[in-house]
Design a protein that fits this description.
- The chain has about 270 residues and is mainly α.
- It is about 50% helix and about 5% strand.
- It contains 11 helices and 3 strands; from the N terminus they run αααβββαααααααα.
- The chain has helices spanning about 1-15, 25, 30-35, 70-90, 100-105, 125-135, 145, 165-170, 175-190, 195-215, 235-270; strands at about 45, 60, 65.
- It has a 3-stranded antiparallel β-sheet.
- α9 (about 175-190) packs parallel to α11 (about 235-270).
- The radius of gyration is 20 Å and the shape is globular.
Length: about 270
């Protein structure tokens, strides 16, 4: 993970913002030091690992140190049940493709330049051109945590009006943000989530974030991110192709996270 955390820490020391990568460390609240820390997950006993007793939800075992499933479940049962239900519901649905990343455009719709979130970076089409793309497109974002950042004028233009309460009904595997959020669900279940799974989810989130911002209205070419111009037929085709590939890549990670939830909940229910 240091190939991600190292550059982030260096930028932080330089007080340098990065419109693509910062999201993985600011919107998501898992600190770099915790991302670098290894946890084996449930059912693994570590020999000569007394230092793990300093971390929450570990206990002594006759052969070493292991995850204290009862302690973990006592504090995280509702989280386990919610994550299991959300990811299981998402797995049951086909991927809906073709949103074309317009959520990022709706987040700057009709804003003054100084109001734009990443205002250190220009809009590829300018303010008027960006607004025209929004006005000529069908926006159909079903992810609440993206929709809540829409500008007020953009909200009525969305085909859906998602809320936190209907998240289980709206989440679907083609959504870029739902796939990035696998990292969030993985670290929220730490230390029960094996660290290799947390790392796999983080790497997926990093790759998805790249497409998320390549398809955004920002011009990030100076950072090495060539645009995916979703205002063109060619750009939309590329977006859908990569979106579908991410949906396929995310599926086994969802399944692994559901397995973690079920394995812990099942152990607890048998006691």
């Amino acid at each position: 993970m240091r190939r991600f955390t190292g550059p982030h820490q260096e930028r932080k020391l330089r007080k340098e913002k990065h419109p693509v990568m910062d999201f993985l460390f600011t919107y998501y609240s898992h600190r770099p030091i915790r991302l670098e820390r290894w946890h084996p997950g449930p059912g693994i006993v570590l020999e000569d690992a007394a230092e793990y007793l300093e971390f929450p939800h570990y206990k002594r075992h006759e052969h070493g140190v292991a995850l204290d499933v009862d302690s973990f479940t006592g504090q995280r049962a509702k989280t386990l049940e919610f994550v299991s239900a959300l990811l299981t519901a998402t797995l049951s649905r086909p991927a809906r493709l073709g949103c074309f990343g317009l959520h990022e455009w709706a987040m700057v719709y009709r804003q003054q330049p100084e109001e734009v979130r990443h205002n250190a970076w220009p809009l590829r089409l300018g303010s008027d051109g960006t607004d025209q793309v929004v006005e000529s497109s069908r926006i159909q974002c079903g992810h609440f945590d993206a929709f809540r950042f829409f500008t007020q004028p953009a909200r009525p233009r969305n085909a859906l009006q998602p809320t936190r309460e209907d998240q289980l009904q709206n989440e679907q595997p083609g959504c870029l943000h739902a796939n990035m959020d696998l990292f969030k669900w993985a670290y929220k279940l730490e230390p029960a989530t094996p660290s290799d799974l947390v790392a796999d989810c983080f790497e997926l989130a990093a790759d998805v974030r790249e497409l998320d911002m390549q398809a955004s209205p920002y011009d990030l070419a100076d950072l090495g991110y060539g645009p995916v111009p979703i205002e063109t037929a060619e750009g939309r085709a590329e977006y859908v192709r990569r979106q579908a590939a991410f949906a396929e890549r995310a599926r086994p990670l969802r399944e692994r996270l559901v397995f973690v939830c079920h394995s812990i909940l099942n152990v607890t229910s048998l006691r």
